[in-house]
Amino acid sequence: MKTVGILTALLCMLLLAGCEEEFPAETATQQTEDMITSMEAEPVLSYEVPKSVPGILVNQLGYTTGSSKVAVFRGREMPEQFYVKEESSQKIVYTGTLEIKKQDSVSKEVSCYGDFSAVISPGVYYIEAPILGRSYSFEIGEAVYAPLFDEACKQYYYNRCGMTLTEEYAGDGAHNACHTAKAVSQTDTSLTLDASGGWHQDEKGQKNMMTAARTVSTLLLAYELYPQVFSDNCGIPESGNGVPDILDEIKYEIDWMLKMQQQESGAVYAGVSVYAKSGDASSKAAEIYVEPISLDAGKAFAMALAKFSYLYQNYDTVYATNCLKAADRAWKYVELNENNKETDEWEFAAAAELYRASGQTSYSAHATRFLREKKYETVWNETTMLGCVTYLSTKHVVNTTYCENVMNYLMAKAEDISYVARDAVYFTAGTKEQDNDTQLLFEMMCLSVVNHIISNHEYETIIENHLHYFTGRNITAYNHISDPVGIMKQFESDAKLVVMLSGILYNGR
């Protein structure tokens, strides 16, 4: 266990070096509205147990050559040894001994562990043991996770709306431009708007502003922490233009978000709903509706646009400046129309991003109000964490006491995650064998942030263990990532996966 107090003090000194102390009516279109498909929350998926689950569980994708490699063995009877075999020759390359972890009091099933970290030669292998049989095959190599990372990033290209995706870039996912017709306002059918572009968030083509902003900001966090792992050759139309492809992809979404803002007022529409006349929501015949203006959408818009502006300014200053101005207009509209004077997590995150990007002290006052009351302790979610990380990393004047408090909280979260993972059957932060993927991914985001600051080997191992869990080292031997309904196909979860994978790739360099 680390001495958290000493570490925190050291971290704050490093992180805050150079920072100064801050001084003290119902419409006539009811029939049309009845046809609208409303936004749906991201589904909670239940994975079916395969007909035959192997008794030896591994990361079915593989392991990097120098990483820790541990297989989980499950059954009522356990052998003493296991064998790692090369798949092509079936030759034994390593013999290991099982370590018993614990026995389930209900099923009487024993969980054991076999460490085969000594196997470092690139190749394709499987594990075999008496009584239990063999595992799925897996690869060992230097860049095993790089293709998965690229594919996770490219999911957003496949979700592009309003443009033709060609076979050159989309392969089997190629299709003609969709949802190109003008969208109709839900509250005023005489008003139309070009709402094309951006990313589909589900198979119906829905586009919710708050979901979009949170996803954009999560992807930008991954880029901000580990820019070295993002390339300019992921295979999208913008590849090779001198801008990391992840920023090009995010810009496609930002272009759509800008369309959703009223230029004269700064107000932001809540999103786009799609109704399919023919049952095909992607067809040009689909009816598209713009959802009403929302203050929460305005806050989310301001957060994402300000964050993008800050990170994109080195590539296109004019565009970045326009994004910051749009974020400011959205913020001002919210301020003029918000009756509730309490600062929620969306307003906090927007204020933190706007303060870092502009340096205007009025934004700082809103951010520090949230931090002074330690609201992050009761409202700890993705949006809150994004705001906290940005406040900690700003180069402008900040309140060092609030920064220290946030660092203490982040460190405590990391330790809580580590404590649970150390004794879990699959070394994950969940308390159940079948954990919630969304929560685990969020916890890995938190751990990735802390690990980026202090570079802790234990945290790196825990993050990689969660990747092993997602790719087959779990009670169902199920690949939660690449399945047709898996993590990569879930709009927000995929962004969290990008954060986790970017840290794993960076630490494996």
Question: Care to give the gist of this entry?
Answer:
The protein has 15 helices and 15 strands.
Care to describe what's here?
- The chain has 509 residues and is α+β, with helices and mostly antiparallel strands.
- It has 2 domains: 56-141, Immunoglobulins (Immunoglobulin-like, Sandwich), CATH 2.60.40; 144-163 and 178-224 and 241-507, Alpha/alpha barrel (Glycosyltransferase).
- It contains 15 helices and 15 strands.
- The strands form 3 sheets. Strands 2, 4, 5, 8, 9 and 10 form a 6-stranded mixed β-sheet that branches. Strands 12-11-15-14-13 form a 5-stranded mixed β-sheet. Strands 1-3-7-6 form a 4-stranded antiparallel β-sheet, with no helix packed on it.
- α5 runs parallel beside α15 (491-507), α7 packs parallel to α9 (345-358) and α9 packs parallel to α11.
- The two termini are 26 Å apart.
- Mean pLDDT is 88; it is low at 1-41 and 43-47.
